[in-house]
Amino acid sequence: MTNEAFETPNLLLALPEIWLLAMACVVLVVDLFSNDRDHGPAFWLTQVTLLGGIIITVSTQWGVDATTFSGTYVADSLGALLKIGILVLAFLGFAYSRDYMRDRGILKGEYYMLGLFAVLGMMVTVSAGNLLSLYLGVELMSLSLYALVAIDRDSSRASEAAMKYFVLGALASGMLLYGMSMLYGVTGTLDLGEITAAAAELDDRRFLFLFGLVFMMVGVAFKFGAVPFHMWVPDVYHGAPTPVTLMIATASKVAAVGLFLRLIGEGLLPLLESWQHMVVLLAVLSLLIGNTVALVQTNIKRMLAYSTFNHVGFILMGFVAGTPEGYAASVFYALTYAFTVAATFGVVLLLARKGFEADHITDLKGLNDRSPLFAFVVLILMISLTGIPGTVGFYAKWMVLKSVVEAGFVWLAVLAVIGAVVGAFYYLRLVRYCYFDKAEGEGPQPTGSGGFQAVLAANGLLVLVAGIFPGTLVAVCLAAFL
Amino acid sequence: MIEQLIFYVFALVLLFSATMVITVRNPVHAALFLVLAFFNSAVLWVMAGAEFLGIVLVLVYVGAVMVLFLFVVMMLDLNLSQLREGFMKHFYIGVPFAVVMAVQMLLVVGSGLFAPETLPEARMPIPEDVGNTALLGSVLYTVYVYPFELAAVILLVAIIAAIMLTLRRREGTRHQDPGKQVRVRKADRLRVVNIPSARRQSEQE
Amino acid sequence: MAELTEFIWIMAKIVAILVPLILAVAYLTYAERRVIGAIQARNGPNRVGPMGLFQPFADVFKLLFKEVVIPSNANRFLFLIAPMLSLMPALAAWAVMPFSDGLVLSDINAGLLYILAMTSLGVYGVIIAGWASNSKYAMLGAMRSAAQIVSYEIAMGFALVGVLMAAGSMNLSGIVNAQAGPIWNWFWLPLLPLFVVYWISGVAETNRAPFDVAEGESEIVAGFHVEYSGTAFALFFLAEYANMILIAALAVIMFMGGWYSPFHGLPVLGPMFDWVPGIVWFVLKMTIFLYLYLAFRATFPRYRYDQIMRLGWKVLIPVTVVWLVVLALMILAGLGPWFN
Questions:
Q1: Do B71 and C117 count as a contact with CB atoms less than 8 A apart?
Q2: Which chain B residue has its CA at the smallest distance from C113's CA?
Q3: Taking the CB of residue A78, how many other CB atoms lie within 10 A of it?
Q4: Nearest to B59 among C116, C123, C149 (CB)
Q5: What pLDDT score does C287 carry?
Q6: What's the pLDDT score for residue B151?
Q7: Residue A337, Cα to own-chain centre: how many angstroms?
Q8: Contact with chain C for residue B52, Cβ under 8 A
Q9: How far is it, in rounded angstroms, from Cα A285 to Cα A293?
Q10: What are the pLDDT tens digits along chain C (340 aa)?
Q11: pTM to 2 decimals?
């Protein structure tokens, strides 16, 4: 029995995913047979895989607009851009984490494999052309992340975080799936393109569409960690090992942007006026809760967790307009934000040593005396996160605000600006600790290998460079939607 | 006639056992009711013409997953009173939300928009002479090969994660290596020693 | 009315299958005692009736008149339902069994899957019996049995996937017809490793020696059915032997050409045996496998629990996986006389 409607898929189009999957399996086998207690082969192979993935993605998918695997896979510039972001962020995450994991006895080969599978899930998500592949990508990412959070299995805090993440995540996946089943029930297709077409010609079944949309929005908001679906974020950020937090805070946010754009932003664009208000509500709540609660946090990881809501609010604001410019602004914001936060976690990892986490904000006191270079990096990161003019964070905020104002939500823009001003308080407090306070006692010294320090410094300086010359990246983001 | 009767019998048992799963106090009984619920829904699927899915539901869920689940439930001494603590406190908050959501869902699903005639037609006509195992296979390995492979990757991740979280290498445990046992040769274990026979004392002298 | 007659007709067919089956179980127990007796150079039962042929009936009546003792603090309902749960799937699986060409109660397409599903249900009887008995030996036996059955089901399923690939059908009659021909046309030859794996897992699935750790009379007295007596015990006994016969019948259908004579299609020998009905060949082949069961029990020492697990997971499953690949290559190459 053969299926007449079937065309042999063009495997070359999906080469980045295939490469990553094949290499993840290679890492699995190589690590099994290597006796290296530091899992060196797994580490280097993983980094080679990620760098190779970047090259393959750029060369096979940028500027392409095609589907393969019977429409379940989409290769286009947007997917390529997000994938490159994800791969770079994962590369940074692995580069920063080796010493930290080794010191805590949790440097296992599985860390790299699960990390690679999580990256694979994110890549699948951002280039899904079908509800099935979209959902499976999200699940692949989430399952790997749940396990990574629990990787330090002797730590009760990590186990608790993993449990919360898993239970709430499963609930959110259920919501997402329920919404998708509604869409399937209405349209009889799983293909996102056909769903968009069906959504454009609405009749009395609009009602059912909206019903599904609400559930999917809940699921997506959970993956973003947008208020009021944010309960897991602080505990998971705090409880998970810092490198895992880094991955959840950076790469998975970029994937969430892809999830939103594929499923709602582009898939249900004809229903814009219906989901616009939901996104506005999510954005407003995120801005309010994020900024107020972050003020009183004394743990850097928790502070970053709450301040994430603030930035998620901004990313969501970009979606409000439903225009390519707005989407480009969101993607630009998400990428630059993730890049900046990755470096921030890098600094936390740099100061951590065996038996000491360095995740209290006072641990940064007097960093300038110990390491002027990394104090400067913190300075760059914090003013960029604040959004002071001249930094990349400023351009990101500006693009988002522009699109929101054009969409007619001036009040939302005003609220966001106020939020950014409040945010300046807790970000610049870290800068003050670095430069104007003296450490109590010795203070944590920068540790880590030369490679780690070099990559971290480069990451920080790139944030600076991107702030001075934002034009290229903005153009790339815009090109992805045009 | 008989077919309808069978349907209603199994549907009623399904509803009954599903309700019992969440209401009985004994966790082993709850798990067994879940088995019953799976079995009955499998029968309903088979009656609806999805014989492959129905049988696989029995094979995988009833035959393997629930066995292991029962295994765990029987081994653990679950303290239900502890689990039920605070139930009433949240009950009063949860019920209004649940009622509102249930009413909304009822309004949507019961709006008549999901009547069989309003639903879109099946994309692929089902030929009479081919079993649905072959039909499923023919789409699973062609049109849906990408999601199918992804599902396989998810299972692989589940295996890796489960092993990572549970495998502990304890020092000093003794275990056999059958390969080594088989490879043993006589020469490795047995040493023939030529012990000179002791001469009688009288001869020594 | 037509529905009613059809219903009665089906019932009659079910009885026509089950009565011989139960008789076969009765005489299998007799054969077991005689065969093992012969192997161990003693007589076995020889008092009741000529050559002890009425011994099974004497045993049945003895068990029927005994009291079913329910232990204190046992879960009464589950305790009594467990033997039935154990017997029901063992009998239900026979619904799709083709005894000869066209001689089958229900000729469904997914017959192989149905059999797998039914045999996988048998474990519930064991688990529930072990748990409901409120006895530690019963519990231990149930745990061992559950782990063992679930593990060997995988190897068995994989072996059957090989059959499915070779026959290109899940209908049991279709599988037999794919083997039409003399003895070297049957699937045991191209699927030899799978055949061996199937048979070993079949023995393990039925909790028979040398895989009978679930009963393990020398360590956990009788395992999951230690607390059972009378009719309830008889049901477990019946289920165990019915399962043995089922596994033997499946081995015949999937690897030994079902109802075909070993000379089918040969120039001279073939027509010579044409008068023999298919069901006779089927039963003859089954008896060989049933004899193997008995010979195993008489000759092999019991495996240790961890050895059973190692054999299942580390030997049988890899063997089947590798052979599936080899088999796929053979089918691709159209290797004769099976796949051309």
A1: no
A2: B55
A3: 26
A4: C116
A5: 92
A6: 94
A7: 9
A8: yes
A9: 12
A10: 777 888 888 889 889 888 998 889 988 989 888 899 999 888 888 888 888 888 888 888 888 888 888 888 778 888 888 888 888 888 888 888 888 887 788 888 888 888 888 888 888 888 888 888 888 888 888 888 888 888 888 888 889 889 988 888 888 888 888 888 888 888 888 889 999 999 999 998 888 878 887 776 677 777 778 788 888 888 888 888 999 999 999 999 989 888 888 888 778 777 777 787 888 888 999 999 999 989 998 888 888 888 888 888 888 999 999 999 999 998 888 887 777 7
A11: 0.88
- Which residues of chain A approach chain B closer than 8 Å at the C-beta? 1-3, 5-6, 9, 14, 21, 28, 69-70, 72-73, 108, 110, 113-114, 117, 120, 124, 130, 132-133, 136-137, 139-140, 143-144, 146-147, 150-151, 153, 185-189, 204-205, 207-208, 211
Report how far apart, in Å, the C-alpha atoms of B120 and of each of A24, A264, A474, B124, C304 are.
Answer: 41, 22, 42, 12, 58
Place of tokens 């005994």: C66
Closest residue of chain B to A118, computed from CA coordinates: B157
**By the CB < 8 Å criterion, does B55 face chain C?**
yes
**DSSP reduced 3-state for A66:** strand
Quick check: A180 and A212 in contact, CB under 8 A?
yes
C192 Cα distance to chain centroid: 19
**Chain centroid, CA A45 distance in Å:** 23
| Chain B positions in Cβ-Cβ contact with residue C120 (cut-off 8 Å) | 58-59, 62-64
Q: Which residue of A has its CA nearest to B125?
A: A3
Residues 6+ apart with CB under 8 A from A473: A332, A335, A336, A392, A466
Q: Which domains does chain B have, with CATH numbers?
A: 1-85 (1.20.120.1200)
Residues B18, B22, B28, B31, CA torsion sign: positive
Q: How many Å lie between the alpha carbon of B197 and the closest alpha carbon of chain A? A: 52
- CB spacing of C116 vs B32 below 8 angstroms: no
Q: Between A9, A113, A146, which is nearest B160 by CB?
A: A113
- Taking the Cβ of residue C106 and every Cβ of chain B, the question of whether any pair is shorter than 8 Å is answered with no
Q: C113, B133: Cβ pair inside 8 Å? A: yes
Query: To the nearest whole angstrom, how far is the Cα of A240 from the nearest Cα of chain B?
Result: 14
Q: Note whether C83 and C228 are within 8 A (CB).
A: yes
**Phi–psi pair at A153, nearest 5 degrees:** -75, -10
Nearest-angstrom CA–CA distance, A165 and A237: 10
Contact state of B150 with A188 under an 8 Å Cβ cutoff: no
**CA distance to partner chain C, nearest, from residue B163 (Å):** 15
The residues with which A299 forms a beta bridge, in sequence order, are A360
φ, ψ of residue C148 in degrees (nearest 5): -65, -45
State the Cα–Cα distance between residues A223 and A308, nearest whole angstrom: 13
**Torsion angle of alpha carbons A17, A20, A25, A26, nearest 10°?**
140
What ipTM is given for this predicted complex? 0.91
Is residue B56 less than 8 Å (CB to CB) from chain C? yes
- Adjacent-strand bridge partners of A75: A66
> How far lies C228's CA from each of A172, A226, C206, C233, in Å?
48, 59, 19, 5
B153 vs A117, A130, A205: nearest CB: A117
Tell me which amino acid residue B18 is.
A
Which of B35, B38, B59, B61 best tests the C interface by mutation, with the highest count of C CBs <10 A? B59
Q: Using alpha carbons, select from C111, C97, C106, C105 the residue that is nearest to residue C163.
A: C111
Contact A445, A370 (CB under 8 A): yes
Supply C40's token pair.
């161990």
Q: Could you report the per-residue pLDDT of A76-130, keeping only the tens digit for each?
A: 899 999 999 999 999 999 998 888 888 888 888 889 999 999 999 999 999 998 9
Q: Give burial (CB, 10 Å; 0-12/13-18/19+) of A336.
A: buried
**Which of C3, C7, C153 lies nearest to residue B63, judging by beta carbons?**
C153
Mutation target for B interface from A29, A132, A146: give the one with most B CBs within 10 A. A132
